[in-house]
Design goal:
The chain is mostly beta strands and about 375 residues long. The protein is built from three helices and 24 strands. The longest helix is centred in the N-terminal third of the chain and has 17 residues. The radius of gyration is 21 Å and the shape is globular. The chain starts with a helix and ends with a strand.
């Protein structure tokens, strides 16, 4: 399997270099379908300045260490037709399926069958290649339900839309589990060439895996192997129910975005323990300092191409995010992070990112019978090719 992954990665890199600054590679028109090929290759580096916990398990006596890894190698084949769209995606690095589904278009309505992203996170629904920061916010990485196999029905217009869906496990074995259902509604009272104001609500309810649930969070660093806040295993857990709020304002080159989610893990009927509730939120701001204006489509923001492809587009951003995993007898801890970053998009295929993350966390230590603070700092970089 490793040989297959390496070959697929090589194909991805060659295709990127051959794409000649195009956003996607149009392959052919087969019957009624315009068939195209897309890809995403990301390589990350993380430098950890640890405080208490060794974030990647191999630091020396000075508490500093680094980690480098190919983060993603995604290959996506798409077909667009008058009545049906289809997509087949695979991540050669993670050895897992991405979007694999068929969408039946019925005017403004649609029915989608297969594996796709569930609809309870604005950041999760946005394109991975255009994420504002290297690591998604804690709320997205913790409470958002990613890709699952299911059926969805949706409708919408220029400034509104809704989706309702039922789902099961993730297509790749031993990953996301638990049958459930969910929905999202959004409304944008302002949508024009220069400004967007967007609001959304979402809800999802799904079964736990083997009546056990564990909530734990990486400190806004995808290559960290340790978690600073962690509920441990919540036994006799029945279902998880998450409610979300989202907001977005964009005006010309400026964008402000925020999300809040609150999740309750209910217990089974034979349990005497109380339910657990945790929450998380973030607010972020990004400025395209080279002047490009943000777009909006289908309830998510879209990132523009550089006004001057040769010079590229520069962005600076800041994000504050917060997570609380303490409720009653479950002392999972709380964490507050500040991330500052700079991004450079060159032409239509290259993106370079750099982030600095200041972490402040606190978790109950039973041996000390007190809360213990852990406040590391992390520097992150990413080199990305996409087409």
């Amino acid at each position: 399997m490793k040989r297959v992954a390496h070959r697929l990665l090589a194909v991805a890199i060659v295709s990127t270099l051959a794409a000649q600054a195009q956003a996607e590679v149009a392959l052919d028109v087969i019957g009624d379908y315009e068939v195209s090929f897309e890809g995403l290759v990301q390589a990350d580096g993380n430098w950890f300045n640890n405080d208490v916990v060794d974030l990647n398990g191999s630091s020396g006596n000075d508490g500093k260490d680094s980690e480098f890894e190919m983060r993603r190698a995604e290959l996506v084949l798409k077909g667009k037709g008058t009545m049906f769209d289809w997509v087949l995606g695979y991540d050669a690095k993670a050895n897992k399926y991405l979007d694999v589904n068929l969408k039946w278009k019925l005017g403004s309505n649609y029915v989608q069958v297969g594996q796709f992203k569930q609809v309870n996170s604005l950041e999760e629904l946005s394109s991975t290649k255009n994420n504002d920061f290297i690591s998604k916010a804690m709320v997205t990485n913790t409470f958002a339900v990613g890709r699952r196999v299911g059926v969805a029905y949706g409708d919408g217009g220029k400034n509104w839309g809704y989706t309702a869906n039922v789902f099961g496990r993730e297509m790749t074995r031993n990953l996301g589990q638990g049958q459930g259902f969910g929905g999202r509604f959004y409304y944008a009272p302002i949508v024009d060439a220069d400004s967007t104001l967007h609001f959304g609500i979402s809800a999802v309810d799904y079964d736990t895996n083997n009546d056990t649930q564990r909530w734990r969070i990486r400190p806004d660093a995808d290559l960290a192997t340790a978690r600073l806040i962690d509920t441990g295993n919540i036994l006799n857990a029945d279902r998880n129910r998450t409610y979300g709020l989202e907001g977005l304002w964009a005006s010309g080159p400026f964008k402000v975005q925020a999300e809040y989610m609150r999740t309750t893990t209910t217990r089974t009927g034979n349990s005497t323990a109380a339910d657990f509730t945790g929450d998380s939120w973030y607010v972020s701001g990004v400025w395209n300092i080279t002047g490009e204006s943000w777009g909006y489509k289908g309830g998510t923001p879209t990132t523009p191409l550089p006004n001057d492809p040769a010079a590229g587009m520069w962005q600076v951003g800041v994000r504050y995010d917060d997570a609380n995993l303490t409720d009653g007898s479950i002392r999972g801890g709380d964490e507050h992070n500040i991330t500052v970053g700079v991004n450079w998009y060159w032409r239509s295929n290259v993106k370079i990112m750099a982030n600095y993350v200041a972490v402040k966390s606190s978790k109950y230590n039973s041996a000390l019978a007190a809360d213990l603070s852990d406040d590391p700092n992390i520097f992150e970089t990413r080199l990305q090719f996409f087409w």
